[in-house]
Amino acid sequence: MDDFLTQHVYSMRHWPFMMVSVVFMMVGQVMKTNVFTKDQAAKKRKSQWFWWWMYKTLPLHPIAAGLITGVLWKNPETDVSGIGAAFYFMGAGAGSSVLFSILKGLAKKKGVELDIPGDSLPPAAAATPAAPLPPPPTA
C-alpha cells in the first residue's frame, strides 16, 4: 500500500491531468455564462451561425479542447504519448464537467452557492428613472 501511495499520490504523477481538468472547469464555466450564451446565439448578425453552433455544442467543448491540448502537448507523462495524449486530455476535459458538478454539489450541501460571473440576476432597476441624454450637437 505504501508503494502505491508513494508512486501515485504523493508524487502527483498525474498533475497534467488534474491541472487541465481544473483549468478547463474554470474557463468553461466563464465561457458558458458570459460568452456562448443563449442571447448571443439569438442575436441577428453576419456570423450568427457560429454563435448558434457554439451555444448548441457547449457540452462537447471540454472534450474538443482536450483533443487540441493532447495534439499540442504530446508527452504529458512518461507512459502517455502520441494519440494517447489526445485521449488522455479528452478524458481531462470530460472530467472537468464532472469536477464542477461535484464541487457545486458539495458547496450546496454546505449552504454555499457558487457564484459564477454572469450566473446571477441583474440588479433591480433604480426607483427613479435616469435622466434622458441631451440631444447630439448639430453642426
Walkthrough of the structure:
With 139 residues, the chain is mostly helical. The protein has a domain at 15-109. The chain is built from six helices and no strands. Helix 2 (15-35) crosses helix 5 (61-72) and helix 2 (15-35) packs across helix 6. It is elongated.
**What pattern of helices and strands is seen along the backbone?**
HHHHHH
Average pLDDT for all residues: 81
User: What fraction of residues sit in β-strands?
Assistant: under 5%
Helix count? 6
Q: What ranges have pLDDT less than 50 throughout 5 or more consecutive residues?
A: none
Rg, Å, rounded: 22 Å
The profile of the biggest β sheet is: none
Structural class from helices and strands?
A: mainly alpha
Helix content: 55-70%
Q: Can you tell me the overall shape?
A: elongated
Tally of strands: 0
Q: Ends: how far apart?
A: 84 Å
Outline of the structure:
With 139 residues, this protein is mainly alpha-helical. It has six helices and no strands.
Which labels suit this protein?
60% helix; 139 residues; mainly alpha; 6 helices; single chain
What's the layout of helices and strands?
Elements: H1 2-10, H2 15-35, H3 38-42, H4 48-56, H5 61-72, H6 83-109
Helix pairs in contact: 2-5, 2-6, 5-6
